[in-house]
Amino acid sequence: MSDGLSFDLTIRHPGLDLRLWADLPARGVTALVGASGAGKTSLLRALAGVLPATGPITLNGDRLDPLPAHRRGVGLVFQGAMLFPHLSVAENIAYGAQRAGTPGPEVERVVQALDVGPLISRAPDTLSGGEARRVALARTLAARPRLLLLDEPLAGLDPARKRDILPYLARAIRSAGCPALFVTHDTNESLALADRQLRIAGGRISDTAMDTALIPGRVARDGAGATLHVAGQTVPMPFAAREDEPWGLVVAPGRATFLGGDGPRVTDAPAVLPARIVSVASESVTVDIDGARIDWPLPDAATKGLQTGDSCAIALQTPIFRLVSET
């Protein structure tokens, strides 16, 4: 593909034998998943040019593999923040911007996306774990990377910190306007951030379809008490969001409940989305949720009596929110 990222790499080192290839679009987020030691971080390091590998890497028609790491235009974010301890937050971010010659307005856009303005005069050792991760990401994005690689960027943060930083991470990745790959062991992170998923197993990579639907909505109220207006429903959001920002709900079989037929319709789930059955098979139905369609596996007995056109609902006990790309 001329636009986007493609690679066909062989990575061989003691204890490591990988043959990995994929074609990815020019924008969007890809989650890299797999067991520990499968080679996820090795792939990121090979793409960045800091781990020897053989084979072509092409980004928007340009070959990267002949180039040294510092000329590839790759932004690499590690598990730890790795901020320069002797520099302030402002100086850490300026370091990335100066190396790339990034104009001031673009740096300010990054600062706003990650909300690090209030931290700008602070020293790294005064930051919380979540704040430090945001600053590290701001420093990387200020260098205007052509490709963004994130190695478990939320690892080590407690659930509350992860919940708070996720919207900043989502905004920053989307605003970067380049392909992004991130390594995660957390399925919720993958569903909340990624458009697609690649799984590494047995030294190979497979394009694992994310059997999900994204139901787009708009933030109806901003701040800590934000709510999302989606599919005619109002759903409380567990993090601070901005009014009229485009977020959506991720619907995935196995993480939600189908309500239809003779089953119960009463639920205490915080999000219940009205839907309509558009087709019925022996062990599944296809449902339409506000224009988005998804196949829903059901036991054969559960499909008895269901008909095309029937109303139903999808209950989300733990709603997962994803920022919607509007480009």
UniProtKB/TrEMBL annotation:
Keywords: ATP-binding, Nucleotide-binding. GO terms for molecular function: ATP binding; ATP hydrolysis activity. InterPro entries: AAA+_ATPase, ABC_transporter-like_ATP-bd, ABC_transporter-like_CS, Molybdenum_import_ModC, P-loop_NTPase. Pfam families: ABC_tran. The keyword Transcription regulation does not apply. Residues 2-227 form the ABC transporter domain. SMART domains: AAA. PANTHER family: ABC TRANSPORTER I FAMILY MEMBER 10. This is ABC transporter. The lineage of its organism: Bacteria, Pseudomonadati, Pseudomonadota, Alphaproteobacteria, Rhodobacterales.
